[in-house]
Design goal:
Helix 1 links the parallel strand 1 and strand 2. By secondary structure, the protein is an alpha/beta fold. It is built from 12 helices and 14 strands. The chain has 2 domains: 164 residues, 3-Layer(aba) Sandwich (Rossmann fold); 153 residues, Dihydrodipicolinate Reductase, domain 2, CATH 3.30.360.10. The strands form 2 sheets. A 7-stranded parallel sheet has the order 3-2-1-4-5-7-6, with helices on both faces. The protein has a 7-stranded mixed sheet with strand order 9-10-8-11-14-13-12. Helices cover 32% and strands 22% of the residues. N-acetyl-L-glutamyl 5-phosphate (X2W) binds next to strand 10.
Length: 335
Amino acid sequence: MLKILIIGASGYVGVELAIYLSKHPKVSNITLSVSKNSKDAHFTIDKIHKKLKNIINLKLEPLIKPEKFAKNVDVVFFATDHIVSHTLVPLFLSYKCIVFDLSGAFRIKKKEIYTQFYNFQHQHPELLNSAIYGLAEFVNVNEIKKKSLIAIPGCYPTAIQIGLKPLVLSNLLDLNYLPVVNAISGISGAGKNPPFKNSSCETGLTPYKLFQHRHQPEIETHLGIPIIFNPHLGSFCRGIIATITCRLKKKIQKQKIFQTYYNYYSNKPLIRLYEDNIPNLISVIGLPFCDLGFITKKQYIVIVVTEDNLLKGAASQAIQCFNIKFGSIETTSLI
Ligand SMILES: NC(=O)C1=CN([C@@H]2O[C@H](COP(=O)(O)OP(=O)(O)OC[C@H]3O[C@@H](n4cnc5c(N)ncnc54)[C@H](OP(=O)(O)O)[C@@H]3O)[C@@H](O)[C@H]2O)C=CC1
Ligand SMILES: CC(=O)N[C@@H](CCC(=O)OP(=O)(O)O)C(=O)O
């Protein structure tokens, strides 16, 4: 049985982790923490998030001396800003904790990317090297079992890679034409305190960070090909829908595409593949799935992928990786 610490438990992602872990059969104890000066410290989590009423009433503890927490837990989930992870992950690893980091702090091996896209100098290249990237459907099961630091992919990179990876690995795309990804995220993607311009009144539907989004290098690194990534913010709370347009190699038929996806995903319980249809966003909200459909015309394919950014885009994927690492059935506590 495992003792768990969630750092950032009062945030959008932290709450979802707490819900899943509170019903997990391998978990004996959960500690929830927030920053040392948090206004939410010492309150029970159900006072902050009313949906947890009569479900979880654990206290939110201020992370004053992280070493004290580290001594008493086996597994830590970081659901905080990447700067917090960058500072504290090494300490928890030094206490032999297994760390699942949901921030972007350890997802890419090249430290220069952090200077360019995250605006800070990465100080732990050895951890960038030793971390494993937890895109659950593609992670090497034997490798993840050996690793102490699991970097959970970003929300957009999860949806986009689920849509593209089988086609890239099977060499079905004509890469003289870069895949163009238009993706729309709900506002919860920006955390519980979004800047004013991202509030639902101000947003409507707007593209942002074109050619500059930090998920661009993450996607290209792990997918292995360049893409055009156009992120948009929509004035709804949860969910990501990615519409991906690509050119196929000559003579690739629709049936071949379906068979390719089927080969990769038919034994992956959290990917729901549509045969003659495309998914919609509402059907995945509150659920741990990533839904995938496509349509072809001549040499073009349009792929549509949907997920809940807080679940398959964050918390449920972290639990999926936790299940794989600790030898549970992949969907334990998720469905
Ligand atoms: N939202 C999303 O869709 C996704 C988010 N992620 C990543 O997951 C992480 C969490 O995101 P999200 O839940 O949206 O963020 P939120 O802003 O909603 O929550 C952040 C949490 O961290 C706490 N916190 C802040 N500073 C510290 C600190 N120094 N020590 C301990 N706790 C701290 C906050 O509480 P307090 O400030 O009161 O201390 C809060 O509980 C981020 O790295 C994000 O990039 C990844 C994929 C998707
Ligand atoms: C809508 C919105 O603002 N989304 C965030 C991405 C979500 C996220 O948390 O990304 P990381 O896990 O990589 O930090 C953004 O575009 O920056």
